[in-house]
Write a structure and sequence with these properties.
The protein has seven helices and eleven strands. The chain is α+β, with helices and mostly antiparallel strands and 237 residues long. The strands form four sheets. The protein has a four-stranded mixed sheet with strand order 4-5-1-11, with helices on one face. A three-stranded antiparallel sheet has the order 6-10-9, with helices on one face. The protein starts with 17 loop residues before the first strand and ends with a helix. This is 4'-phosphopantetheinyl transferase.
């Protein structure tokens, strides 16, 4: 089986219909983190303070800063991050704003996707399949993963996993939709089969060094991916 295309995400400059803002935690200094922590919503700051590990706190702080940047880039007040609410299954939204966004983080990567339409984003470090694929993947998904050599298999597994996670986040159903109940690979195409939505969203997957970034969204146009600097994180904090 041919691999799902990894060049479907078009890198561009400026705010597209869908923008994914990324940050590498290796670029985060203690001073910048302190400034971010002082500006983000108290609820996020307090939640981050309860994390046992410093890296988890750092990811949460940066996620708040990326949300503020995404709001500002979309014409909203970045301070609106203080008014965030969550849906039934925890998907965040800004009451009264015609804006959709989603965050994800893994290892030293933090991402925030924003659009005028519904979306879901997920990022994961490349991981070896340690589960029985028959319990979580469709036959097409298993064929795709098992069609690579031992090294490529890990990347293929992670591509499918992140796409499935991004679809669940797109729906906003949390753990209410088991991974095995739908497929994101159909023959040689990327599409949701037997999912919970009325139609299949646009799906993008991108290899990102030792990570994989996946996105499901309602737009059909190009996606802009931009890397934020530490200075840009502080711009709206």
């Amino acid at each position: 089986m041919a691999a799902p295309a990894t060049d479907r995400v078009t890198t561009a400059i400026g705010l597209a219909n869908v923008t994914v803002i990324t940050f590498d935690l290796a670029k985060l200094t203690d001073d910048v983190e302190r400034q971010i922590a002082g500006a983000i919503a108290p609820a996020r700051r307090e939640r981050a303070a309860r994390y046992r590990f410093a890296d988890d706190r750092r990811r949460s702080h940066v996620a708040g800063a990326l949300i503020r940047r995404a709001l500002a880039r979309s014409g909203e007040d970045p301070a609106g991050e203080h008014r965030l609410s969550a849906g039934k299954h925890g998907k965040p939204f800004l009451p009264g704003a015609a804006l959709h966004f989603n965050v994800s983080h893994a290892g030293d990567r933090v991402v925030c996707a924003v659009s005028a339409q519904n979306l879901g984003v997920d990022v994961e470090a490349v991981m070896c399949p340690g589960l029985d694929l028959r319990k979580i993947f469709s036959p097409d998904e298993r064929d795709y993963v098992e069609g690579g050599d031992i090294v490529e298999r890990a990347r293929r597994f992670t591509r499918v996993w992140t796409l499935k996670e991004s679809y669940i986040k797109y729906l906003g159903v949390g753990l209410g939709l088991p991974l095995r109940d739908f497929s994101v690979v159909h023959g040689e195409q990327l599409a949701v089969i037997d999912g919970a939505g009325d139609s299949s969203p646009s799906m993008h997957v991108r290899d990102w060094g030792q990570y994989v970034l996946a996105l499901c969204h309602d737009q059909r146009d190009a996606v802009c991916i931009e890397s934020a600097t530490a200075a840009e994180l502080l711009e709206f904090c």
